Amino acid sequence: MSDDLNRDGLEREIKGMGKEAEGKLRNAAGGLTDDVSEQLKGKGQELQGKAQQNVGKKEQDQARKP
User: Fold this and answer.
1) Which residues, 6 or more positions from 21, have their beta carbon under 8 angstroms from its beta carbon?
2) Burial class (CB in 10 A: 0-12, 13-18, 19+), 59
3) Could you tell me the maximum CA-CA distance found in the chain, to the nearest angstrom?
4) 56: Cβ–Cβ under 8 A, 6 or more apart, which residues?
5) Which of 2, 15, 24, 49 has the highest Cβ tally under 10 A?
6) pLDDT, position 4
7) How far is CA 41 from the centre of its chain?
8) Distance (Å, rounded) from C-alpha 65 to C-alpha 60?
9) Which string of DSSP letters, residue by residue, matches 12-56?
10) pLDDT value of residue 64
11) Which residues of the chain fall short of a pLDDT of 70?
């Protein structure tokens, strides 16, 4: 059970890192093209990725507790 939580948490954390990276790229692309809407979408995606990473870390922490 705890191994499942740990593995799921790690997967969620990695997916969150990917989402955050995509958001940063989208934000940067919007900045280069002066597309404020794209910048905001990128920033939102970054925040979603960070939140997803935090959830994954919490799941891993829970799996490690006796």
Assistant:
1) 49
2) buried
3) 51
4) 8, 9, 10, 11, 12, 13, 14, 15, 16
5) 49
6) 74
7) 14
8) 9
9) HHHHHHHHHHHHHHHHHHHHHTT-HHHHHHHHHHHHHHHHHHHHH
10) 82
11) 1-3, 5, 66
Residues in the chain: 66
Distance, in Å, from the CA atom of 43 to the CA atom of 21, rounded to the nearest integer, reads 10
Write the Ramachandran bin of 34: left for phi over 0, alpha for psi from -120 to 50, otherwise beta. Answer: left
- pTM, full prediction: 0.85
CB 23 within 8 A of CB 51: no
C-alpha distances out from residue 64 to 2, 15, 26, 29, 48, Å:
7, 20, 35, 40, 25
